Amino acid sequence: MILSAIATGRLRAGDKLPPERELSTIFGISRASLRDALKMLSGMGAVRIRRSDGVFVSGHDDRVALSEKPENAVLVQRGSTAELFELREVLETQAAGWAAMRASDAQIVQMQTLHAKLERKAKSGKLSSTEARALDGELHRAIARSTSNRVLVQVMDTLRDLLTQSRNHTTDVPGRMAMSVDEIGRVITAIRDRDPVRAQQAMFSHLKMGEQANMLSAARLVGNGETED
Description:
Blueprint: H1 2-7, H2 20-27, H3 31-44, E1 47-50, E2 54-57, H4 73-78, H5 81-102, H6 105-124, H7 129-145, H8 150-165, H9 176-192, H10 196-223
Antiparallel strand pairs: 1-2
């Protein structure tokens, strides 16, 4: 809920969160669980914990890349891949709607250019899983940037990095790559048409299909006697 408040702008950079006692009452959790959650948010770079002053929403200059914060590995251990996908569904679905309302014409052209490149390479049969994930990441990042919400961009980047660390195999399922290209294309078309409802629906469907593909891939690995670590 704190992440959602940051992403939607209800909490802005520099805002101080309420005291622990109040937050634990609001969320209906123990103070110990709340502290764990705040540590996770701090590890993601979403908040800063000042022992003497309290907890504050991070400003842009306070955030560092995931690779520079090794404590974020704890998030992969504590939060399952399914939970990470679930959070992406909340944030990126909202982001798609905002993009349809806020994206500039130039930003939409950039999305279309990236998608055309992804589609062209996929049809040529020369698109590796690694390159597909990289191009897909660029597209999702372009959509996030077009919302003009810098906190949202940072949080979404972190979630994508965490999914990579936790072995996201969505593009390894046969036929999934072509489906993914088509799905994200529908998101961009809705953004171009300035239709936030359709953009959200298309993004939610895209992420849900990706989650299901990842589960299928993970099941296949287990069935083949492989591990994911």
